[in-house]
Design goal:
Blueprint lengths: L2 H6 L3 H22 L3 H20 L4 H11 L4
Helix pairs in contact: 2-3
Amino acid sequence: MLPGNLVDGLSPHARVATAVLPFVLVMVARIVWGKSRIMGWLITLSTVWFAINVLMAPYSAAMRQDIRNLTGLWP
């Protein structure tokens, strides 16, 4: 099983949670432990993780099939 297939099996709510939860946890950690270089790096990494999840979400198997179906509509 490829890692991409694991994401295809998740519900939409679980996909949102996997994108948002790391960022929320880092924000809570920043409030608890304050500003530091490590917190800055963790915020950067969690923001990149969120962006990757948001940008790659349309490329699930179902979305790829929908895009292929759209190209067949035009002559």
